[in-house]
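In the current project phase, our protein records have gained a C-alpha cell line. A sample record follows, to show the layout:
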Amino acid sequence: MSGMNTGAKPEILAPAGSKASFLAALAAGADAVYCGMKQFSARMQAKNFGFPELRSLTRLAHKKGVRVYVAFNTAIRPDELDEAAGLLTQLAGEVKPDALIVQDMGVAALARQVGYQGELHLSTLANVSFGSALKLVHSKLGVDRVVLPRELHVDEIKALAKACPPGMRLEAFIHGALCYGVSGRCYWSSYMGGKSSLRGRCVQPCRRRYTAGSEAGRFFSCQDLSLDVLVKVLKNIPQVSTWKIEGRKKGPHYVYYTVQAYKMLRDQGSDPKKKKAALELLSLALGRTSTHYNLLPQRPQDPINVAGQTGSGLLVGRLQGGPEKPYITAREDLLKNDLLRIGYEDDRWHAVRKVSRFIPKRGRLYVKVPGKKKEMKGTPVFLIDRKETYLEQKLAALEKEMGGTADRSPVRKRRTPGFNPKLPGPALGKARPFDMHVFRQSGGKTTGGQTGLWLSDVSISKIPKKATGKTWWWLPPVIWPATEGEIGTLLDRILKKGGRHFVLNAPWQAALLPSFKGLRVWAGPFCNVANPLAVSTLKSLGFSGAMISPEMGRNDVFNMPRTSPLPLGIVLSGLWPLCISRILSPGIEQNRPFASPKGEQAWAVKNGHEYWLFPNWKLDITRHKERLRKAGYHCFVAMHEPIPRSVRMKAREGIWNWVLGLK
C-alpha cells in the first residue's frame, strides 16, 4: 500500500457504540466504522459489542464494502493477558476486522502472536506526536496507521505527513468531543478513584464545576471539535487518508447526521449550497457548541468557554415554574421519543427523560425531575438523542438485512486450545538497586542516590561537564512537530558533554537518539507500561530498563517483575500530574490554587511547552520500598516539583490506586 494515497478520497470513519449507531453509519454511507468489544475498549461507557452481534455487523459491513476497525485500545494489566489473547484469537479467526486500534505495545505483540493478519492502527492515546516517531513505529512495530493527536494544527499535520514513511497513513479527528488533557497524558479520573482514561473508564472530572478564587465555573470543560468547512485543508494532505468522527457514546442520530455532513463537504464542498446544507446537518447532530480549536495556527480558537454551555447535546430550554410542576419552553420542535437530559451529569438532580408527544417550538413541555429542589430553576435541558421515523425505517431495513447475513454459528471458547501468550522471562543479573531524584533544575538536595533532570536549556547550562555523564536526562512526556528539532538539539549538546543516561517518556522518543550504543536508556513512567509484553517490546527497541505506570495497583505491581525481561523502576514518591494540557483555561492563573467540588486543591504551571496540573497531595508509597526491592525492582524514583506559596499541601495518604487497583 502507498503512504501517499494519491488521488484517493479520504475515508470517513464513523463511530459506533451500539448496534443502532453501527447501522446508522452504514445508512449514512460511511467508508469505515470503528467500534469496541465489551472488554478492552477505551470507551467502556458505550454499550459496545459481544461476538455474535459483531460478527453479523461486520459481515453486513463487508457485504456493503465498508471497513470495520475494532478498538482494542486500553492498557492491559499482567493478569489480563490470557483473556486478551483469547479475545484477539476470536477476532482474528471469526470476526476478521480490517484493523485493530491499539495503544498498548503488549497488545500489538499479542495480536501477532495469535495470528492476526490485519492492519494495526496506533491509537491517539499512544501519543505519537512528532515526525521521526512515525518511521520507528512503522518499521519496528509494524504499525500501518497512526491516529493523530487532536491538539495539532494544520502546519504540524503537514510536517508529520512529510515525515510519513511509504506504506503508512495518518488519521485525523474532524469532529467530536475534545479533552482538556493531551491524549494519553491524563490521569485525572484515575486519581479520583482508579477509573483510568487509559482503561476506557474516564468519569470526566474535567467536565465538573471548579472554584478559582471567588469564581466558580467549568474551567476545563471543552467545546466539541468541528472542522466543518475547514476540513478542506486536510483534503490537500494525501497522507491523511482518514477523517475520523469521535463519538462511540453517541446515538444513531448523531452518527447519521455527522457522516452525511462530512461526505457532503468532502465530495461537494466547492458548492456553496452543499456547504450550507452540510452545516445545517451538523447543527442537528446534537453535539456541544463547536470550535475549530487549533486547526489554523494563525487563528486558534480557545476550546473553553466558561460562560457558555458545555453539556453534551442541543440546548432546548431551561427549567421554569415551581418545583411542583417544572417545565421548559422548547427552543426547537421536540418529537415523540426524543431523549432529554436535565442538567449536567454532576448535578444532584441530573436525570434523563423521554418526550411522550410532539411539542412545537415555543411550546411548553412539563418535565418530571427527581426531588423538589429550588435550585433546579434555570437548569439547562439538552436534547441528546432523536429517532426520526425515516431513520428508524432505514435502521430497521438494515437490521432485517443483517438477519439474512447473520453468522449463527456458536461462539467458540475464548482460548484456542494449547495457546498461551508467549511471556518473556525475568531479567537476569544482579544489578544494584538505586534511588533517583528528579528535579526541574539542578541544585536540588537529596539524601543520596542518583539525580534526574527534566531536559531544558536551563538544566543543561547549569550542569558541569563532569556531572553531565552522571545525570539522568528526562525527556518531556509530549513532543510536538515544532519542538522535535529543539529536543534534538538539546540531546546533541548532552551527548557531546558526555551524557550517557536518559529517561524517555514515550517509547517512540527512541527515534530521537541516533544510537543507544554506550547509553543507559530507560522508559519513563509516562510510557504507561502495565504488562510484561510491553516491556518485551521496549527491550526489542534497545531500552535497558522500564518504569511501570504509577496508576497500577498493588497486585499488578508485584506481578510485573516475575516475567519482565528488563529491570523495572517505580515512582515511590512525589508530585504526579492530574493531566498535561496544551492550553490553560482562561479562568485559571498559573501557580494559583483551584478547588474541586469536594474541596481538593490543585494548580497549573507551565513546564516546557505544556501546562501541568498538580494536586495538592503527594504520591507516597515509600513504606513499601523494601518489599518492592525484594520483588525485583531496581530503580526507585522520587519526583520533586516546586510548590507555589499560595498552595497548601494536604496531609492525605498518597497511595493512589495501590489498594483500589487499576479499574
In short: The chain has a mean pLDDT of 90. The chain has 17 helices and 31 strands. The longest helix spans residues 252-268.
